Target: Peptidase
Amino acid sequence: MSTVAGILNDYETIRADQEAFYRDLHAHPELSHEEVRTADEVARRLKAWGFEVHVGVGGTGVVGILRNGDGATVLMRADMDALPIGEATGAAYASTVDAVMHACGHDVHVACLLGAARLLSSHRDAWQGTVVALFQPAEETGDGARGMLDDGLAGIIPKPDVALAQHVLPGAAGTVLTRPGPVLSSADSVRITVHGRGGHGSMPQKTVDPVVLAALIVVRLQTIVAREIAPTEPAVLTVGSIRAGSKSNIIPDEAVLELNLRTYTEQTRRHMLASIERIARGESLASGSPREPEIEVYDSFPLTENDGAVTARVAVAFAEHFGADSLPMELQTASEDFSDVPRALGVPYTYWSIGGTDPDAWAKAVRDGTVFSTIPANHSPLFLPVMQPTLETGTAALVVAAGAWLAPGSE
Amino acid sequence: MSTVAGILNDYETIRADQEAFYRDLHAHPELSHEEVRTADEVARRLKAWGFEVHVGVGGTGVVGILRNGDGATVLMRADMDALPIGEATGAAYASTVDAVMHACGHDVHVACLLGAARLLSSHRDAWQGTVVALFQPAEETGDGARGMLDDGLAGIIPKPDVALAQHVLPGAAGTVLTRPGPVLSSADSVRITVHGRGGHGSMPQKTVDPVVLAALIVVRLQTIVAREIAPTEPAVLTVGSIRAGSKSNIIPDEAVLELNLRTYTEQTRRHMLASIERIARGESLASGSPREPEIEVYDSFPLTENDGAVTARVAVAFAEHFGADSLPMELQTASEDFSDVPRALGVPYTYWSIGGTDPDAWAKAVRDGTVFSTIPANHSPLFLPVMQPTLETGTAALVVAAGAWLAPGSE
Amino acid sequence: MSTVAGILNDYETIRADQEAFYRDLHAHPELSHEEVRTADEVARRLKAWGFEVHVGVGGTGVVGILRNGDGATVLMRADMDALPIGEATGAAYASTVDAVMHACGHDVHVACLLGAARLLSSHRDAWQGTVVALFQPAEETGDGARGMLDDGLAGIIPKPDVALAQHVLPGAAGTVLTRPGPVLSSADSVRITVHGRGGHGSMPQKTVDPVVLAALIVVRLQTIVAREIAPTEPAVLTVGSIRAGSKSNIIPDEAVLELNLRTYTEQTRRHMLASIERIARGESLASGSPREPEIEVYDSFPLTENDGAVTARVAVAFAEHFGADSLPMELQTASEDFSDVPRALGVPYTYWSIGGTDPDAWAKAVRDGTVFSTIPANHSPLFLPVMQPTLETGTAALVVAAGAWLAPGSE
Amino acid sequence: MSTVAGILNDYETIRADQEAFYRDLHAHPELSHEEVRTADEVARRLKAWGFEVHVGVGGTGVVGILRNGDGATVLMRADMDALPIGEATGAAYASTVDAVMHACGHDVHVACLLGAARLLSSHRDAWQGTVVALFQPAEETGDGARGMLDDGLAGIIPKPDVALAQHVLPGAAGTVLTRPGPVLSSADSVRITVHGRGGHGSMPQKTVDPVVLAALIVVRLQTIVAREIAPTEPAVLTVGSIRAGSKSNIIPDEAVLELNLRTYTEQTRRHMLASIERIARGESLASGSPREPEIEVYDSFPLTENDGAVTARVAVAFAEHFGADSLPMELQTASEDFSDVPRALGVPYTYWSIGGTDPDAWAKAVRDGTVFSTIPANHSPLFLPVMQPTLETGTAALVVAAGAWLAPGSE
Model:
């Protein structure tokens, strides 16, 4: 009987198919909640490889289950949606859809999870237990995972022992990176509408100026990170948008601010939300505003906080398989909704990253200190992982990590 | 031979016609530069009354000239355009045009100047000299007067000895108000575009945040009026609009501010424009902005500064005719382009106001301190002068003021 | 019988004495509430000239009363105190007292009022009625006039029909300047103490930073003049002092701001005081301050608002006597406590200014636009009125103004 | 031959003496650069125990050298100075000096290093190599370590292989805490003097207001931490002091800010210093300041960045000796000048902390979330480590750590 890791020796048999699938997927990106073609392609393959397949979970979500005797149940997740960005990579397999692009690498995630599913399916002698392959829609809008849960995911799948997910990021292709504890921030958007009393620009004394009020709020919001949060506690508060008035000589009635915050503990998150409200109210009072401000929290993403034991187990497996290419991952200020699923199911999880940059280009950029200026990052119209060894590494990472629970005698 | 003031005893002969004309004009408002119907109605009447008429001056402007022997030349000006405001007065003769309204009272100005022209035409025995009746388009956009000048106004009319204009404002109908020296402010709009370097909201350290920069500029602009202008020198600086970004989690590349300033001397105007530029540059520097801000001045209105001698002469004539209804006018923070014409022609001028509010309502509002809360002002969708005695007063004011130059033996 | 104005022909008989007295007074300045020597010199002379003299009124105040038959009672006031400033004029009669100087010209006021008293005393045939010569201490500290009132002034003097005062200011010596209505601002100082919670500078998250709070209050206070007060209404708000903390790395517990405001109507004054409080409270709330701020108003000076009829009567008398040297006075942003007396007594008043600058130097500075850079103003260590025609003009102004009530047949 | 760790079994023989010495030292605190008595007590003991003793190094510094055959050279450092704080602990052995107190625990450091020196001296059979016991003055003022270096320290001692230091902090007594990499921040103070142009508070238009300028700088400085530093990079910028003006109605000529910053990389430190300068200059420009601001950096403390290998070696030794009482140390925002010595000598170093709080009180405070409100921290007038097991633990920690280099066969 082959070992779980031995499965990977067979990667060459699927390489060409996987690459063709990936190119096709990259060329046909679909926006959040519209992943119809992608889901079809995924479901068809899973069925062909013997998975029990559930489609339309949470809209366009697909779940494949492969039961292979007693043992642990491992959930692996890939997200499927693309972004409303026009591709500018010039790739031969660039997006054929106007202003839609796989600019966040979800096509890599789908291709790798499919590859791992295929290898596990064709080497059932090498492991035992149950594999759940979860293809999630709408990660970019933050509601895809919740959508699958709301649609009854818990009743469809056996309860996992562990949940795994990965993301391709700038970094040398071929490397895998893990981190225990907080790894992705929680994120919340906040809309503040402050009220003045409009009037003619030449008679400010008859008005309450909401432009000045909004500006003072923007200024004061800077004090939250600068003064209220411990220096060793990462936190971000960005005012991404400010809008008030339309003419130079009319003082408007209101101003609207759109904020985004990133935190790594629920305590800090609550503190910052409370401070935002306190500041909006205090400044409105100081302006003599005729009405309390409206404060609305939206587009919330959960904290991704990797389980210590699970991450250690994956890191050990990665170190054995990838050697020096298994690296520590830095804390990211990005956010994800993956953790909604294990959190709802009460399952420990870990989330790692894989590099997607040409290793030589990466090494040069690190050497020259030009990583941020020369390496296109996720959400850039120029973001394009090198196909290999990215696909092989992402496929192997899933098999190796799952193997830490599924290899005979691994419990 | 009747006296000039005696002309006004004949007002009753034109009252009904003038009121009908006014109601029709109010019902058919036309936006700036589109005063075609209005101009036609005006030109037809002027011709009928014996004026030499020039049409299409500066687009839709109309000039009527009535020569009546030796003597002074008096230019009287009315503006013709309406505003993009939907009327809400409920008047029987309310606007029939969607979202267009004579909300600034220019229909009163036109009706009064036509009335004065008619009376002067039919009582040529009572005065001598030349009357120039100038019907100007596009006062609201600030370019109507300049348009007439650019179109050769100076070559069409004899050089005036004096230029006169009036405006209906909240105040007891029946009153006329004069003021020597500055009476309306100059006005300028300024667009400031400041540059940051955009990026993801979770990575502010890789960006230069133009939202924070714009907010700090708004805050600092308050110091110009508060600290740099003498307390006894009226000045206003309003930021009517601020716009930056469209999403909470994307730091945008730039922010745009639209400012409006009002001043009463050219020195203060230049000081404030220089301070605005200094602040925009200093704050951009303090933010580490990658590019100098762009600063564009637009929609400039000139200072209206009444000639001392001319105003005194009109005030004496008003006092004789209107008695206690001739009052001092307060300094206004509004702006006008009327003075462009006399300034270009090198002619002294005065600009007065007439009340348009029901006298009892006005007296009550003054008594109760509720003028600003109960009396609709110009540019309000509820602004509607009482027809009389407003039209009679505005007509008489023009005849009386002109008479100060045209009455036999007045020089 | 000579006319009142005719009295002034006799000025030459007192000129030398007055100048000697002035030089001596200038050389011996006394601080507020310490005007002992000055009061003695004044009282001795008044007695010699037949005045009923009251000394020690409100500390060092002196009141002289000269009754001269039926007629109006005219109160004239001069202030006596000097400033804690070291004289740098280099005058032959410069201050002999270290760091004390008549830098505000009160010595001129005293000398002129004494001169007028002497002339009126020696020409009792030329007028009838009662003269009250009031020499007030402690104008600079704002409490001298109230001190005299509190000490029973109303019971000592007959009720005046009018109260008069004057001040020497930069301007051509020989000129007198009047203004109806508000002429000097009211003034108030405000101390704001805001509370934070101190701590180590490296742990801001455990503190509430009062330095940031105080800075934001300073910034926001600029919006009162810039946005809340009508542009045509003069008003000033200065933060003259800010103090918080003593070490770079200790976040202090509190910060103290000292404000000064100048207004010309009681309504504006109350509005600004309310806005200051609203802002201090709103900003403290926005900072999460552990305690409400303390707000203390101190050093209040009243508004000096000249009576219209009284000022017109004085202006007519000045025009007759001084001709082209009688000028309109500009609104001043300085403050005075003179009006406390007539306000308490229910008496109409006027307050005028006289020029103290060499007329040629003044004309040149006006021509060159260098008034502010070359002419030392009151409170400068270089302030020194030219002795003549300043003393003669100030003396004449008092006699002429008083004469408008005291000349036979003037009522 | 006993093992190094075995030395510690003999601690009981020195306990009473050490405690008596500590009580005496606590009762006789000495300010920075004035540690005369302390140095005498230390030097006398070191000599008695066979050390080669150098006194007066860098003022009051003491160096003891104990050579014990071939082997590594280990430098151990204790700081000796107290703080200008009045003790409020009520301890029987409280400070006998007015307003001076060992409020930072340096007395613990001295007692423990002396204890370790004594034990190592009396058990020379258990180790080999050289021990350098360095008693440093003036840590609180940041110049004690540099003073010893400037006074020739390098020529007095053999070059160490490793340098060790420790600090007592709030935490359960009995615990020792280590951390590789940055452990204490670098610190810099910055004095900014900004220039306005003073004048009377009622005439702001003739001035440049430095109070408003300083306030706007304080406000804008908040954006450095909030926007310019990566969220995962700890950094602090505090404005501990702001001072301008002395009277409410005088606009002063200048304002002075005192800042303190804490950083954990030299790159961040340089970035922040550059940003401070950029902001001070940009805001001065925006205010129209007549002169560039002055910016002075003072009281700089170096970054304390523990060597990875050295810290790992100490942590392993601690784990063996202290078991579960060996814990990871959190990143501190405090600063120290200890690292000046090893940095100058080119020696790797580590700096650890020991707990000084009664373990039960600590456990309760952690449980209740009241650590910050109930446990007095360093620099508090209530700071008082429990004597034991603090002294024993600090003594043992030094012996154990040194033993990692000095135990036979340890290299």
